[in-house]
Amino acid sequence: MVELTGNTLTLEDVKRVCYEGELVSISKDSLKKVKGSRDAVDKIVSEKRTIYGINTGFGKFSDVVIDESDVNDLQKNLIRSHACGVGDPFPEVVSRAMILLRLNALLKGFSGVRPVIVERLVTLLNSNIHPVIPQQGSLGASGDLAPLSHLALVLMGEGKVQYNGTIYATEEVYKKEGLTPIELQAKEGLALINGTQAMTAMGVVNWIEANDIAIQSEWIAALTMEGLEGIIDAFHPAIHEARGYPEQMEVAERMRNLLAGSQLITKQGDKRVQDAYSLRCIPQVHGASWQSLNYVKEKLEIEMNAATDNPLIFDGGETVISGGNFHGQPIAIAMDFMKIGVAEFASISERRIERLVNPQLNDLPPFLSAKPGLQSGAMIMQYCAASLVSENKTLAHPASVDSIPSSANQEDHVSMGTIASRHAHMIIQNVRRVLAIECICALQAVQYRGVEKMSPQTFAFYEEARKIVPSITEDRVFSEDIENLTDWLKKNKRQWTTQLNELIFQ
Hints:
The chain contains 19 helices and nine strands. By secondary structure, it is mainly alpha-helical. Pathway: Amino-acid degradation; L-histidine degradation into L-glutamate; N-formimidoyl-L-glutamate from L-histidine: step 1/3.
């Protein structure tokens, strides 16, 4: 059980809740804060004080005062009108993360919602009822208005949800679960949709997947080192300590551990004096990408525990301040940084693929073909990798440098952070496929060299991967191999992270 406080959520907690289905609960102190914040809103309404979002319109309509009898309709109209998301839905795990993050933000006690709102969000999580939320339509400022409105619709008993692997109208699932739609009251609609939880939820899922991919890239790079009889000296600790980047030193250490005991790696001067950069500079390039992931982790864990709606309520309602915490710029920049860092794993991987298949760059059979000329072998797999890498270069263009004014120029600078997070997710999927291609080629290369000469660590990886992709004895539809190995990497990500940690800390 993960207890939520509004202040202590970690990425590890998100993994447990969103990937492993762990239940959540609300701390007593945070629920007390929620109640106090709601009492403040009720007091504002009863005193007929004019406060943005409670009894005024929204955006350019902020100067329009709403009659007390209409404040509930104001919230309902807000959600329905703002539910303008389009395109394919977010992955279910992202929808689940969105509920979790929105719940955690409301528990800080600055948003003015009733306890029934946070309790319903807990029910959705613990009952695996996940809103169907279209991916496109958010500018990433004023919050993720469109995506979060689709989440809020579900609290009202409207919209669609994914439940037990099937999409239903929310009202159907509510009947099955004995749930009653919630009629939103003053401030609650705005509190649910002013926030960065769509881009942050997507960002958290991105980070979890990217972190696993980064580890897998080292296992696969180690296979390639053996397939090309790479020079181990490039990973000597003295080189990396001389530069001083912790991430670079850590990659070099992991590579040394992965290759310990291998008879396929070489020393300087054994076969050549030095390797090409795609082998020699693995710690430097991968290490720099790890730096970007570490930066992203720091920003995500701040944002996961942040109050990002507007206005925020302090001092029991005596201080209600309109600000801009819903602006997604910190996460937009972090996602753009992640895009660059993760894309580099594929960029350098594709260059290693080229070295594995190009007969002018190695002494292996041309394109790792069983019958060169008659059979093309891995020739077009390298084409595929090159195509994915090129696509990543387009996707890596920063979304955060763009802004288009909205709401009659009231909201005149926006972050495009949700676009950045979505593009980061697309890059991650491409990177995993490029790594799968490198893995297929490296498996074939070490087989030619002699798997009995591999390190015990890489041989264990080889044996598991060979269960998914058999040896290339003749040409076949390699698309199936690429997708099968990609799925295997995605499903078995924890296994190789755990094994590598055991190698280092044993």
